[in-house]
Amino acid sequence: MKLKLKIWRQKNSESKGKIIDYDIENISPDMSFLEMLDVLNADLISKDEDPVSFDHDCREGICGSCSLFINGQAHGPDRLVTTCQLHMRKFKDGDTIYIEPFRAKAFPVIKDLVVDRSAFDRIQHAGGYISVNTSGNTQDANSIPINKDDADSAFDAATCIGCGACVATCKNSSAMLFVGAKVSQYSLLPQGQTEASRRVINMVNQMDLEGFGNCSNTGACEVECPKGISLDNIARMNRELLKASVKK
Asked: For the chain, what is the domain count?
């Protein structure tokens, strides 16, 4: 395959970025999108040019770091996959592909396609923990009976990898799907009840402090989420926040 790539290049967070054109060829349809970028970078390095910076780690759809905006879609044209799981067979020979970083006030660009998503870490630090009895009489988690529907819902929420596709897709750059998933993960389980009220208030407050927008009720976040996190988690978070506010 021969492709024309239009890639956002930005030296650092203070520099003004712009789209740069690159022509690339001999791309196999079986390559992942990141492998295609590897080929491009190898070519750039051979020409003593600065390679394109992009974030990646596991390349198995688990770490959430390969956050790219491809042809106007978070993680590209496929569904329920991360960028590292996107294959070039989703494109055609001769296609023009626009590649940009996730754009949100709370996700400042570090360089090229790499953005700072540490805002998500700070939200989790604000409430993503549970109290555990370490007195010597610790109860094994597997011995605590949990309703299967609740356990399944908690597990579904826990599949969130914090990639930020929900933020990049939302016209308000809202992080409510992410925060809703993290709140739901604990609120559905007995282990998470001790901090339930403080957790939702602290995490929502931190979300606002980070500069994320409010929910737009569009539903694009669920559509573009590589793990299919449900909007039900936003509704659950809102209920938890209302209960916590009344208690307060």
From this structure: 2
Extract the tokens encoding 51: 């390679």
End-to-end Cα spacing for the chain: 60
Amino acid at the residue 204 = V
Mean pLDDT, the chain, integer: 95
Residues 186 and 204 in one domain: yes
Residue tagged 């933020």 (tokens): 167
Phi, psi of 19, rounded to the nearest 5 degrees: -80, 130
Q: What is the DSSP letter of 47?
A: T
Structural domain harbouring 102: 3-111
Pair 133, 242 in one domain: yes
Q: CB count, 10 Å around CB of 54?
A: 22
CA distance 114 to 88: 21
State the average pLDDT over residues 173-186: 96
pLDDT in tens, 122-160: 999 999 778 777 777 777 777 888 999 999 999 999 999
Query: Residue 83's pLDDT band (boundaries 50, 70, 90)?
Result: very high
Same domain? 48 vs 104: yes
Residue 234's Cβ-count burial label (10 Å; 0-12, 13-18, 19+) is buried
**pLDDT (tens digit per residue) in 113-124:** 999 999 999 999
Give yes or no: residues 106 and 121 share one domain: no
